[in-house]
Q: What sequence folds into this?
């Protein structure tokens, strides 16, 4: 979903005008049909978590990508949204009010908004590093306070609720996971649409301007501090809704929602997906949630791989996944993508070799360190080997070195193919 | 009360000195690159775990000499091959890189040394009470920690203020282009300063580890407090970092030992909120329970009322 580029033919232009809506319609259809494709309980759980992660990551990107504010404490609004929703559900249940569950995320959103208005007043006075530090300090402050104020936050075990006690909607009582999935999906679509719409308003554009050059923003008569504050409030609102959905999903809110790991993982997801495009955080949230749930079955040390992927993204692809994809848009539209595909195929083997070697080293370290009780023998793909001998280490080192060497050797050809494809796109007026 | 005062002051100064060992490196690195190194506390943790490993193979004194060197070299490599690349993509990318690094180092330490705390003991040579105050033994190892930190500051100060190398480093921090024009290799200076900063954190890790708990979460526990120190002291100011380190060290140590709550102070008033309410939580919380959040309260207050920090001359 990006700007439409002026294209030569009238039919193309008409199609381009419809394209943004087509993307939304397609997205809604996918969300609607997914449970028919993946029927297992695990799949439903993971897809529900993905929906929540998408809202949370999009709300985070209002700060990082749109306004250029790096926050290390976004989980504060997520957690507060969750706690207030749990208390709201309990209060509504106790008072027997006819408020249906699907409206409950509004309570979380309101909590996120109010606290963002309060904390944002303190933190958005500064930008850059100072803002990042304040967000970190506030996160620690709220996290620690949640353990002190036991009557509201329930101490270590948190506060639980029962979502089925509320009035349902459309004859649903939201007991089964599938109904919760559709509730999350609906909110996810609404929030995504609202956040996208916000980027298209003058305010959204002003946020981008504050990100790129706050000084010029001041020259044209806006106060960057006010813009940052408003962006922060909106971001808190949507983070609160995400938190509300997580509370409804698990029927529980606990202090882990405030943890630094929570704030860190939304940053990771947003950045890996790509902060520069609206679609980026969506991709990142889906991918990261999927990996969190799938990799944790495969390997005990999945977080380490996660960190490596993140560092690689920061160093080599600061635009993230969506940045990489969007890089290819002009080439694709110029019909020159076929020039690149064989070159990319060339990269697959070296990358797999290196990655496999690194993974072997990490797994051997993990086996010796975390599972020392099981002895040094381990099995990968049916091959048993002893991690205390030099041979597997030599294999790993050789794989890493060979991969790196092959990639180096192939790189000039890949770069040349890229340049050629770019030249074609430029020739057709599709790339700058 | 006198006993409490003396012991808390000693412990507070000790904690403050440890904080300054790390904050000094962090401050130097900040003045140099304009970026707060998120992974600084991770170098401290690496120092602690490497020292644990080396002291198993050899002894504590070898570890004290070798571990910081390894950490320093690792730091220099991180600057050369990581941070310098990230620098091309701007400040946010640099900050994110160090954030990712901290994440990876924490996971790596868990992979290699496991998730449970390791058993790192005070060397036998220093395992005796140095003196006794009001019946409380003060361990000799803590005295050793204080002396080591003080010796390092003295060395660092003399090197920065009195030697030619120190002058070049100082000049490179403020006027890198001019220093480069004079024929000095500025990237090399930056790499060395980063390495030395990491090594200082490593030393702090080595000497702190036997006294504290050596575990994979030690970086995450200390890192945020370190940021509080450098921000409160004023970014880029070494004196500020020194004062703020001692201030926060004393603040936390004293707070932990004060077991008072509002309910105790106003015990005579007869006011007692109903238990299970927010008010009652606030009424009964003790100062000791608040100790972990005090530095962050200080951070937020300083950033609101004196954004330059205590001694800084630039806004954060």
A:
């Amino acid at each position: 979903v990006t700007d439409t580029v002026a294209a030569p033919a009238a039919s193309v232009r008409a199609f381009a005008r419809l394209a943004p809506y087509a993307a939304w319609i397609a997205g809604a259809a996918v969300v609607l049909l997914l449970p028919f494709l993946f029927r297992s309980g695990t799949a439903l759980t993971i897809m529900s978590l993905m929906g929540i992660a998408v809202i949370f990551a999009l709300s985070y990107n209002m700060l990082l990508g749109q306004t250029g504010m790096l926050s290390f404490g976004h989980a504060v609004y997520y957690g507060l949204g969750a706690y207030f929703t749990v208390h709201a559900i309990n209060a509504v249940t106790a008072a027997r009010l006819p408020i249906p569950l699907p409206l409950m995320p509004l309570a979380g959103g309101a909590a996120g908004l109010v606290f963002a208005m309060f904390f944002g007043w303190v933190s958005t006075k500064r930008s850059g590093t100072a803002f990042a530090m304040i967000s970190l300090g506030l996160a620690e402050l709220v996290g620690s306070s949640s353990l002190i104020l036991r009557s509201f936050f329930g101490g270590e075990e948190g506060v639980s609720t029962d979502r089925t006690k509320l009035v349902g909607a459309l004859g649903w009582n939201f007991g089964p996971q599938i109904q919760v999935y559709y509730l999350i999906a609906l909110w996810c679509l609404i929030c995504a649409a609202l956040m996208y719409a916000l980027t298209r308003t003058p305010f959204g554009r002003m946020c981008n301007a504050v990100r790129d050059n706050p000084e010029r923003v001041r020259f044209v008569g806006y106060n960057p501090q006010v813009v940052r504050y408003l962006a922060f409030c909106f971001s808190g609102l949507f983070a609160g809704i995400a938190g509300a959905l997580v509370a409804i999903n698990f029927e529980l809110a606990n202090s882990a929602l405030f943890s630094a790991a929570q704030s860190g993982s939304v940053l990771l997801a947003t950045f890996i997906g790509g902060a520069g495009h609206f679609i980026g955080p969506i991709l990142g949230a889906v991918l990261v949630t999927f990996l969190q749930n799938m990799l944790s079955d495969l390997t005990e040390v999945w977080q380490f791989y996660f960190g490596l992927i993140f560092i690689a993204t920061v160093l080599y692809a600061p635009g993230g996944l969506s940045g990489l994809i969007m890089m290819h848009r002009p080439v694709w539209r110029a019909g020159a993508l076929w020039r690149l595909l064989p070159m990319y195929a060339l990269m697959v083997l070296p990358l797999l070799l290196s990655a496999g070697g690194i993974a072997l080293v990490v797994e051997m370290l993990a086996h010796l360190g975390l599972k020392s009780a099981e002895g040094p023998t381990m099995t990968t793909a049916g091959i048993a080997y002893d991690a205390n001998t030099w041979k597997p280490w030599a294999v790993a080192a050789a794989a890493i070195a060979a991969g790196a060497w092959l990639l180096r050797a192939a790189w000039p050809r890949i770069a040349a193919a890229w340049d050629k494809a770019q030249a074609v796109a430029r020739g057709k007026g599709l790339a700058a | 009360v006198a006993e409490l005062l003396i012991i808390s002051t000693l412990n507070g100064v000790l904690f403050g000195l440890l904080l300054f060992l790390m904050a000094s490196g962090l401050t130097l690195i900040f003045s140099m690159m304009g970026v707060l190194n998120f992974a600084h506390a991770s170098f401290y943790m690496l120092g602690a775990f490497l020292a644990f490993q080396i002291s198993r193979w050899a002894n504590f004194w070898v570890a004290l000499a070798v571990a910081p060197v390894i950490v320093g070299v690792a730091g220099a490599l991180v600057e050369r091959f990581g941070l310098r690349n990230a620098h091309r993509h701007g400040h946010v990318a640099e900050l994110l890189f160090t954030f990712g690094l901290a994440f990876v180092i924490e996971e790596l330490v868990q992979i290699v040394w496991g998730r449970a705390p390791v058993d790192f003991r005070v060397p036998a040579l220093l395992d005796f009470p140095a003196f006794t105050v009001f019946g409380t033994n003060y361990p000799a190892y803590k005295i050793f920690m204080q002396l080591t930190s003080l010796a390092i500051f003295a060395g660092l100060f003399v090197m920065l203020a009195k030697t030619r190398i120190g002058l070049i480093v100082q000049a490179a921090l403020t006027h890198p282009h001019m220093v480069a024009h004079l024929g000095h290799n500025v990237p090399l200076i930056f790499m060395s300063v980063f390495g030395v900063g990491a090594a200082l954190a490593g030393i702090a890790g080595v000497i702190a580890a036997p006294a504290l708990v050596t575990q994979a979460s030690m970086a995450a526990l200390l890192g945020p407090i370190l940021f509080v120190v450098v921000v409160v002291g004023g970014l880029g100011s070494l004196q500020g970092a020194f004062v703020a380190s001692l201030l926060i060290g004393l603040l936390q140590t004293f707070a932990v030992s004060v077991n008072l709550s509002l309910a105790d102070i106003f015990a005579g008033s007869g006011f007692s909120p109903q238990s299970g309410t927010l008010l009652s939580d606030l009424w009964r919380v003790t100062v000791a329970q608040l100790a972990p959040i005090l530095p962050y309260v200080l951070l937020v207050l300083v950033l609101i009322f004196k954004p330059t920090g205590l001694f800084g001359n630039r806004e954060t």
The longest strand of chain A covers residues 377-380. Residues 1-7 of chain A have pLDDT under 50 and may be disordered. The radius of gyration of chain A is 24 Å. DSSP finds 17 helices and four strands in chain A.
